[in-house]
Amino acid sequence: VTERSGIVTLLTDFGLADTYAGVMKGVLLSQAPSLRVVDLTHSVSPQAVEQGAFLLEGAWRYFPPGTVHIAVVDPGVGSGRRRLALSTLGHFFVGPDNGLLSAAIPEWSRPVRQPGAPYVARAVTPDPDLTAVSIESRGWSPFISATFEGRDVFAPAAARLAAGGRLEELGPAAGELLALPAFRAPLLGDELDGLVVHVDAFGNLITDIRGSDLPPRASVLAGGQRLSVVRTYAEASGLAAIVGSSGFLEVALPGGSAAAALGAGRGARVTVVP
Amino acid sequence: VTERSGIVTLLTDFGLADTYAGVMKGVLLSQAPSLRVVDLTHSVSPQAVEQGAFLLEGAWRYFPPGTVHIAVVDPGVGSGRRRLALSTLGHFFVGPDNGLLSAAIPEWSRPVRQPGAPYVARAVTPDPDLTAVSIESRGWSPFISATFEGRDVFAPAAARLAAGGRLEELGPAAGELLALPAFRAPLLGDELDGLVVHVDAFGNLITDIRGSDLPPRASVLAGGQRLSVVRTYAEASGLAAIVGSSGFLEVALPGGSAAAALGAGRGARVTVVP
Amino acid sequence: VTERSGIVTLLTDFGLADTYAGVMKGVLLSQAPSLRVVDLTHSVSPQAVEQGAFLLEGAWRYFPPGTVHIAVVDPGVGSGRRRLALSTLGHFFVGPDNGLLSAAIPEWSRPVRQPGAPYVARAVTPDPDLTAVSIESRGWSPFISATFEGRDVFAPAAARLAAGGRLEELGPAAGELLALPAFRAPLLGDELDGLVVHVDAFGNLITDIRGSDLPPRASVLAGGQRLSVVRTYAEASGLAAIVGSSGFLEVALPGGSAAAALGAGRGARVTVVP
To answer: Does residue B146 belong to the interface with chain C, where contact is any CB pair within 8 Å?
Structure first.
């Protein structure tokens, strides 16, 4: 049994111009008044499931065990797609069954991305260490809208878990789940075939190339330019590649925006050559 | 007597590039250290009182009774306009007397919007169920700037209420208040004459047309296009109208931005024809 | 000995599209579960140290004594620049040694800006009332990345201070510190030679000209226009100058954006003539 930390995190594509996130906090605090709610981000690109999954994967481990992570990036809201609650390593995850919660799924049971292919979710059989249920409404939400399950399903479910409720109270075992490929650029010949999966506020292009996969003295090809790998932003005199704080290779332009300089964004290809 | 929830919400047009909201939290926590402060949004369009009122109206009911809602969208700051504190249905509201707090005023005592007209506040006599006072400084704020009453008036007043203070401690009964028309598109012949009152982060155009007012098999005219009404985003193949999570009709483009596709924004007309 | 307020504030240039601030909150709450974390802003312009210092200076006094303020605007991350923890007037400050924490340094020991010159940090000898240490990692962070010291150094250090730890536990006395000039427009002849140091969400141009330095019946020159000084936004019929809520002169356009109208931004010159 995992003690609860009393913390709920939120990661969505709702933006900040609306009260959607605030309303979810109202629902959470109405049900569990002593919770603390932490925004991971509400600025995932609209409906960019793979970007949301990448950001969640880099963030959840910094919270104490017993934390509940709600993630909502959900192009399929109102369709037949299921709503999941998962538990692994003492953390809880709540969100749609579309690959967004892949961070909770052990890497070895997730698909592998093929060279040149984007991140697409596929059904996998969950690992026995992962407890997964399909959330089914059981009277604890008075009304379920067709468009805002963050408020009507995910927040109430998370409040129950955060208050000590068990996953099994929320619904039956989920069986197969949709999972995204593990974030790891594949080899194509002797090159690492990377993709930009996120662009941060500085305009750094964050790729799926793991620092630990980099060969010694590698160069990086991005936007038609050959870049070298530096250890800190301070070492770079112009566009450069660097292993960032979450362990992935980024293309950065100190004092400027690499995204603007290269005209590149999410989905752009970045290659590592030995 | 209403128990306090210990929660204060904030809704402003201050944006997030500044420390204005953070400073208000400092004032709140200095006076009432155990409060929890929840941001509804700080991205109301600058000085768009009717948009702020619409967003507050859709959000406050999701918080527990005893919550204090501070709203500041205030083109008249520093002029003679009054500062209000209201209480209704166990919730408290603090902000300028310009229609922004209309959510606290029962609909039947608010004006009715005329076809083709925008949302303009008018003086109304408050309902006896609504307690309303005009906040007058009484030494509990050391200094009142001419430009930042959120910090100098509304936050201190809200902190007192949230800590259990009574409305009557803040000032005398308010008498007449400014109220916006109820958000409800009027009939023009057999058509509903709607206005876009908000655009969300997905580019959905949110109108003042209530789902409950829609005739069966209605069509929607927006930006020169005739749209049908669908039940979920997943059912729409292109631009479509849908009753959103707050019960109002929205024009949406799944996977895109209806606002960009139609070149429309706040104030645009959207009509429902039977 | 200062009691701790249990509050930690954050001011960064990380933006909101990322989980960087959320991850710092995870680290803080993992180490000190009862903390309350308040965002001052994460929208300082990328690497604009002087803007961050100005915003921090206007905000920290509104929090109760015993609050820990983390500030991270850090072009030099990963270089040899030191990490500071300071204490003054019962408040604690944690961040890079690049002038960002100048708010904690008494004004009389900070440099003076010369007419026409920008804000550039210089080394100063700290005042005896200011306790300052250079943070050195001592095993309380499992891993220090070269790029995200907010997570790996500043958040853990702040959590220790907020939980009652002493500055001296974090490292040795800092000696000389980098400090920005006090924010105060200098005289050039009989004119005050001001700079825009911040633009807020309304497009107000906030200068380093102190309201208390204004001569009677002054006019203000900005973007080639001569403006008069008004007392409230409501008094202005067009572009005007006003002493804002933090005591500095702002150029404002009620109902519009002065920044857009004048094509001016941070670094623009604004002059006061008697």
So the answer is: yes
